[in-house]
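note to self: dont lose this again. the chain is below, predicted strucutre after it. 166 aa total, dont forget to put it in the shared folder this time
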Amino acid sequence: MRLQEHAIAEIKQIVAQFINEPTPLMMILSAVQTKFGYIPMEAQELISEETGISVAEIYGVVTFYSFFSLEPKGKYIIGVCLGTACYVKNSQQVIDKFCQLLGIKPGQTTEDGMFTIDALRCIGACALAPAVRVNEKVYPQVRVEDVEKILDACEKMEAEKNEKGN
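---
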């Protein structure tokens, strides 16, 4: 994939905005992620050229932190916590059900770009185990039989957005 001219200009603008910060990389990467939804290798190479930070270091940061992505994500990012508290309360069966219904594996996005499934290590909601996060909303004590309802709620939200023209 090759970055389009407008994307190159936007990334250069983001870099310029943060370049004088004491440690600009996280701010730059976060802004690029927010703007484009992911950080492709071509963007990492451009950031390297603009900052003098090696591509290896940038790639290391992007792949270390789970909130950064190398691939485009869906409109609804479903994160199923597989941390200990959630796992012992059957979160593996919950993520398996999401995968079955959507026809994808963890880390993948549906062909229509609607859903991405992420297996998360801990979302800090142990008292709500098993917890599922859809974008910014956390669903507590999710059971396998709740999975279809969660997907239906997302589809209903999307239909309402489309009706309003958003």
